[in-house]
Amino acid sequence: MQNKRTEISEVGEFGLIRRLTDRFPIRNASTVMGAGDDAAVIDAGDKYLLLTSDLLLEGIDFDLVYFPLKHLGYKAVVVGINDILAMNGTPEQLTVAIGVSAKFAIEDLEELYSGIRSACEDYKVDLVGGDTDSSVTGLTIAVSVVGSVEKERIVYRSGAKENDLVCITGDLGAAYMGLHLLEREKRAFAGNDNPQPQFEGYEYLLRRQLMPSAPTTAIAALRTAGIVPTSMIDISDGLASDMLQICRSSSCGVRIYLERIPIARETHKMADELHADPVVAALNGGGDHELLFTVPLAQQSRIAGVGGIDIIGHITPADTGAKLITPDGSEITLTAPGFVERQ
Amino acid sequence: MQNKRTEISEVGEFGLIRRLTDRFPIRNASTVMGAGDDAAVIDAGDKYLLLTSDLLLEGIDFDLVYFPLKHLGYKAVVVGINDILAMNGTPEQLTVAIGVSAKFAIEDLEELYSGIRSACEDYKVDLVGGDTDSSVTGLTIAVSVVGSVEKERIVYRSGAKENDLVCITGDLGAAYMGLHLLEREKRAFAGNDNPQPQFEGYEYLLRRQLMPSAPTTAIAALRTAGIVPTSMIDISDGLASDMLQICRSSSCGVRIYLERIPIARETHKMADELHADPVVAALNGGGDHELLFTVPLAQQSRIAGVGGIDIIGHITPADTGAKLITPDGSEITLTAPGFVERQ
């Protein structure tokens, strides 16, 4: 421990990782893109290889009280795959390293791996490495995914241009509302020997939280439609934070129209019950595992013909900032927790 | 948690990972080699890409009471690099994902990353991805390393042939003795406000535990000498366990001559002090970060000319088993904790 002490919260998560990785030079010719996008890009001759690593920690990223191990294994793979999709790539290989405490039996780990196997099957990725380690407390899952992409089809966060359309797959806020629902039932069950969960009518929210799927269909549809996005990012921290990442990387502003943000009926209903704003869940909730991307305005009719995608706004010059436009025409500056502007 | 409960200790670490990854088919043509070697092998056209992932957990893999964060960062990189070297590859890219609890300040993480940076510099690898996550307790480090190797130079664990010479880089048991020394001083310091550590004369043991280096020099020397090993493995769990891995993968036996196992003077001295057997430290201690490999008998004179390498035995037919030969000629069957024979 050092003499000067700066709390991590002072710089935010994004500021922290930038500060830590700032002074790392690139030495190898095969390194095309280092830190700062959804995946690293490695030159493999006639194509690019993509590499991403994620860490899932018990008590932070998941709660085993309501997260079945099989679903957790599946979700861990989806999380990694999405980073490869966000570069417009195809996921191909996967390694999983786990740290487990003595509270876990082999049967528990087999449950976890049956979920991993099921995701590998659904997304046609190969498990190519594994490692198990003891842990003092709880379960740690480290997932690395390798994918590939034709060089001319790679998409970075940095390619958004003025007037580009801002598009999104699926809907937002449901995973966050599913989490709230699970947390509420967990509190209700505490000390109750014969719990009766109140999940009826909310199966969609639970599925979004516990059984997320990767938007491979949308990526395939874009390919079929001959569309290569100008920029793309995996929405893992909520629309606001990930939109701001694109704006920063592409040196642009954005106008997002509030009423165009796709929010499921169940998300609205749950938000009503909780006296919460569903738009806040969409903007800052996180956990949606959808893709946010931009396409040239000229491709408007083409993108409109692709199913499962919504156009929610357009790219503006950097000096106009990142704005959310409400139905009455007021402008709200987009902000995100943990996102501190570069000094 | 399931009804039937089998403790992880019942099948051992190696049995566990085999049991978990057993039913995973390979679906992608680019996957050359999945789980079961030091690194995964991915076909990248004119060469192979290598991928390895490791997890380092506080309280299990390191103790921050005596492990400086800067050294820990350096060691985390070395651990990953060694898996690439063990495939006869060149490490090129690295991702680091960390989980940190609130006890860590930014200055602490900067220390950790200064060690990572220093190792990246020494071994010419590029940090291409990073992620930070909160954790409930302690520090978790997940390291993935990507490397490459010419297709004709790749070395697996499975290529050892009868009469091949068994070779080793560096010396064994010192890291384990360094760990014992640190643990002893930690106990002595407990409750002592003004501790005076007793490390004099044992700097080498401490260095092997706290500042390990990757045997890149040996790999380069083999290349210069025109030697491609028939099999190779990173010694991370002690000579016995890793030798048994080669024997199992190559379907062979081995004879290792006890007096030829390279053990440093300081390791002998520390073992005397602790009334311990330095050979046990070499066989089962772990943490040495050296390479164990085999070369054809015909290359005996060539390998003898390469510095920093010892010949410790030779490969035998599978039915003769894995034997340790003592100076008086007795044979001891090689066993390793955590290593349960395949059923």
Automatic annotation (TrEMBL), chains A, B:
The keyword Iron does not apply. Pathway: Cofactor biosynthesis; thiamine diphosphate biosynthesis; thiamine diphosphate from thiamine phosphate: step 1/1. Residues 36-149 form the PurM-like N-terminal domain. ATP binds at Y113, G130, D131, R157, S236. Mg(2+) 1 binds at S53, D54, D131. Mg(2+) 2 binds at D54, D83. It comes from the Bacteria. GO terms for biological process: thiamine biosynthetic process; thiamine diphosphate biosynthetic process. Mg(2+) 4 binds at D38, T52, D83. Substrate binds at D61, F339. Mg(2+) 3 binds at D38, D83, D234. Keywords: ATP-binding, Kinase, Magnesium, Metal-binding, Nucleotide-binding, Thiamine biosynthesis, Transferase. One of its GO terms (molecular function) is magnesium ion binding. CDD domains: ThiL. It is an enzyme of class 2 (transferase). Its EC number is 2.7.4.16. InterPro entries: PurM-like_C_sf, PurM-like_N, PurM-like_N_sf, ThiL-like. Mg(2+) 5 binds at D237. It catalyses: thiamine phosphate + ATP = thiamine diphosphate + ADP. Gene3D superfamilies: PurM-like C-terminal domain, PurM-like, N-terminal domain. Catalyzes the ATP-dependent phosphorylation of thiamine-monophosphate (TMP) to form thiamine-pyrophosphate (TPP), the active form of vitamin B1. Reaction mechanism of ThiL seems to utilize a direct, inline transfer of the gamma-phosphate of ATP to TMP rather than a phosphorylated enzyme intermediate. Belongs to the thiamine-monophosphate kinase family. This is Thiamine-monophosphate kinase. It comes from Candidatus Tidjanibacter faecipullorum.
